[in-house]
Amino acid sequence: MTNQSNRITVIGGGIVGMSCAHALQSEGFSVEVVDAGTAEDKCSYGNAGAISAGSVAPLAMPGTLRKVPGMLADPTGPLFVRPTYALKAAPWLWRFARAARPRKVQAIAVALNSLLGPAVQTSLELAQACGAAHLIRRTGQLHLYPDAAALNADHASWQLRRQMGVSLEVIGPEDIHALEPAVGDQYRTGVFMPDEGMVIDPWGLRTALADDFLQRGGRIIAGHVDGFSFGPDGPDRLLLDGEAHPVDQVIIAAGAWSGRLAAALGHRVPLESQRGYHVSLMNPEIQLQRPVVAADRKCFITPLDGSLRIAGTVEFAGLEAAPDYRRARHLLGHGSRLLPGMRTDTYTEWMGHRPCLPDSLPIIGRTHKHRNVFFAFGHGHLGLTGAAVTARQIAHLVAGRDSTVDLAPFRIDRF
Predict the structure, then answer these.
(1) pLDDT tens-digit map of 2-56
(2) Dist. CA 391–CA 407, nearest whole Å
(3) Which helix (H) or strand (E) holds 260?
């Protein structure tokens, strides 16, 4: 039985889109998902597996810009802008710099905290609904630095987390090795965040959601949305691989490709791909209990089901350029410095597109331009973290209820 006769069409079958589809179906709606590409194209496949509810500090912090030249000068560093893409990235980077103003940073942190605070519990509830609760673990996160000076360089971010009520503890070598004996002596201090979670198989969670969605009568359509035709309330047809496909209500949740769809709906948003890489080690011969972050190199090392994944880096090169897997292989060196006993001879490589907005806030909600369109994209480095909580808010909105989070900071027309 459905509580609405009209159909909800979710564009995007990654973790955010599939979470929205599952949540809407649970509300009694008839839901279909339009999904382009393969599993490997999605950040849902290759992310670090962390549920980082305490990641309320935006990427752009006061002082961030002073660090950028050093990052760009380091070929193995966490940030790289391909020279051929520099002019294209410049407007986004200018907006990013403006987002680092102290008053703006405080407002962003408040908004992120309101959205992400319940992320671990909400993710667990969503996983339980599709029979995948075993994939979610409450393990905490360990962020490590070589010395106190390196930790102090990130003081503003940690202080902001404290202000938002995030539980964290600064620890030294003895506590580090008690938590993770495989960590080497080069990392002498760090921060333990006990309330964070992880997913031991990120794509497995997305697959479980999709399977349950299909079993309950949902439909997944493989295809690429080329555009829309419009009726009085908004889009009434998708142009799906050149063919007209009727729709009633539409959710845009297509990750880094959402900007093109938003533009077709009359919204220009500064969405950029911060291309991320990973290597997954098949036989690391060490064990970790939780995500461990080499904070000075901005990379996560996570024990997944059957592998150890090292994920990180930011590359600006757009949606079309081929991967540069040297970026992935740099992660092996960072991981070996943190975990000197790790075996690195057998691994796979991956690159994916993080959908990033310059103020680190996703776009969640409806648009004043069209009565039948909702947005759920732009989660940046926090797509897995934000998927379940975003889906809950979208389900409230589509069902005509008030959202449980103030969505004004996440509106699409804020830029």
Answers:
(1) 444 579 999 999 999 999 999 999 999 999 999 998 888 889 999 999 999 999 9
(2) 13
(3) helix 258-264
